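Sample 3 of the quickstart, ligand zinc ion:
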Amino acid sequence: MNTRPDFKYLVASAMFGFILGAFVVASLGTPSAFRQRAAASPASRAAPRDAANALDDPGSPVLEAAAPTAGRSGDPTIATDAGSLQGRGLTMPVKDVPRTALVQSFHDVRSGNREHEAIDILAPRNTPVVAIEEGTIAKLFVSKAGGNTIYQFDPTEQYAYYYAHLERYADGLKDGDKVQKGQVIGFVGTSGNAPKDTPHLHFAVFRLTAAKHWWEGTPIDPYDVLR
Ligand SMILES: [Zn+2]
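Result:
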């Protein structure tokens, strides 16, 4: 009897198993940012520099700050990125807030011994939030920590801009929209874990990976980008 059909069946089964396994791995791969961040050593963090200034308390690593940062301090190219972005003439993300009002809080420690990796810009509730540069709305995302958030890619899709704690989105805004510099994309609020009496924009910048996933990248201090 010819065993060839059995062999073919085995090969087909093995291939199916492999594909199924790959699919399962891909499905589970989404929280990679969470795992990377969890792996960051608390011992390597700086002491709280200005903890009293902490305006929000990002509880979820992926959703609030978007960016895994293990080894961030060892990446000398990030300073170059900040300088390059600063040279683009970006607009401030909150209407009528001057650059002189910016307070650096990138290294402030939040809950879970994590760094803030963002900047908080105070403004009255419902103050317009605008795109700091032209680009694409990568994702409108609602999370427990960030509340109503927007992930925007820059025109080169090397960087993402993250706007959180929005009171609401601009009417009609949706994933994939092209936006212009200065276009209103949302409004300042306290959604997510922002104190209800302290409306502010939590704003972050990160360099995307080659995969260009809106949820992962290397954070860049927005203070260096915007000031
Ligand atoms: Zn914040």
